[in-house]
Amino acid sequence: MTPTSDALNTIAIQTGLTTQALGQSIHILTETASTNSLGMTLAASGEPDGTVILAEHQTAGKGRLGRSWVSPPNKNIYCSMILRDPRLQQHLTWIPLATGLALQEAIQKTLGITPSLKWPNDLLIGNKKLAGILCESTSRGQTGGVLIVGIGVNVNAEREDFPAELQSTSTSIFQESGHPSNRNTLLTSIFNYLEKWYDQLASDNIVAVQSAYTAACSTLGIDVRCTLNEAREIHGRATAIGMDGSLQVIPFEQGARQVIEIRSADVTHVR
Ligand code: BTN
Fold this sequence. Notes:
- The protein has 271 residues and is α+β, with helices and mostly antiparallel strands.
- It folds into 2 domains: 10-216, BirA Bifunctional Protein, domain 2 (2-Layer Sandwich); 223-270, Roll (SH3 type barrels).
- It has 6 helices and 12 strands.
- The protein has helices at 10-14, 35-44, 95-111, 173-177, 183-202, 206-216, and strands spanning 26-29, 52-55, 77-83, 116-118, 122-125, 128-137, 147-153, 223-229, 232-241, 247-251, 260-262, 266-270.
- It has a 7-stranded mixed sheet, with helices on both faces. Strands 11-10-9-8-12 form a 5-stranded antiparallel sheet.
- Helix 3 (95-111) runs antiparallel to helix 5.
- It is globular, with a radius of gyration of 18 Å.
- Biotin (BTN) binds at residues 34-36, 58, 61-64, 67, 69, 78-80, 121-122, 132-134, 150-152.
């Protein structure tokens, strides 16, 4: 069966929205290069905190580490949010993790599927990628900077919508459940949970985010390979999430006993 998908619709999304800021202003595009890139432009032109940019299709969707994000039309969620709350600037390293928590909670509550969180910014079902998060900042770390948080969720994509090389490592809610899901309903829930977790960060309740993330993170307690850069790779056991959202890894290198705190890396789960 080919999954059909309701068109993205502002009224449908805003019905049931309980947020103060997130999703109160929504731009829906039939097509754009990247909702994150458009979010940057709209932020520069003064769009308010909580503004959401959604597209039915991205022609140049961006992933982390310079990768591209496969964005078949009319099936998935391609969403970017403009965040201006200066209190979030103190907790930038937590933003992708808190975003992942909200996505997980929304997917679980709305669709009855529970993805796991792969540190720092992926949602997985089994070992296949369901969703990714790309955070960008207009002036990193400085008060007054604007955050653009981009999320891509594979909702109604079929296996054939992914290029052959990604078919064994990607999945969608449709592929897992066997039936199409309503993107508008899911988006409402995503924005409600996102604001809840961003509020925790804004009020410095890091312990709440850390403990929820620790409980949901499938990277912990397993062997991981962390590529820090072209010259440095660490193979070890991931043990904990630090107070700054870092991944704590005990390396397997001979004689290495010290925990290494990883703040940015390409992480592979070794099974
Ligand atoms: C990753 O896992 O590498 C991050 C993927 C992020 C994809 C989303 S789709 C909406 C937003 N716009 C983009 O160009 N990228 C993000």
